[in-house]
Amino acid sequence: MTYWVGNSVKMNKMLAETVGFAERHNLFTMAW
User: Fold this and answer.
1) Burial readout 1-32 (b: 16 or more C-beta within 10 A, e: otherwise)
2) Separation CA 20–CA 23 (nearest Å)
3) CA-based nearest residue to 18, from 29, 26, 4, 32
């Protein structure tokens, strides 16, 4: 259970970082 929760948190962090990168890339592209 602890492993599953830890893995879920890690995956959520990776997903959040990917979404954040996509949002920054979108803003950067729109700025042009």
Assistant:
1) eeeeeeeeeeeeeeeeeeeeeeeeeeeeeeee
2) 5
3) 26
pTM listed for this prediction: 0.52
**How many residues does the structure list for the chain?**
32
How is 1-32 classified by DSSP, letter by letter?
-HHHHHHHHHHHHHHHHHHHHHHHHHHHHHH-
pLDDT digits (tens, 9 = 90+) for 1-32: 566 677 888 888 998 898 888 888 776 666 55
Tokens of 18: 């990917």
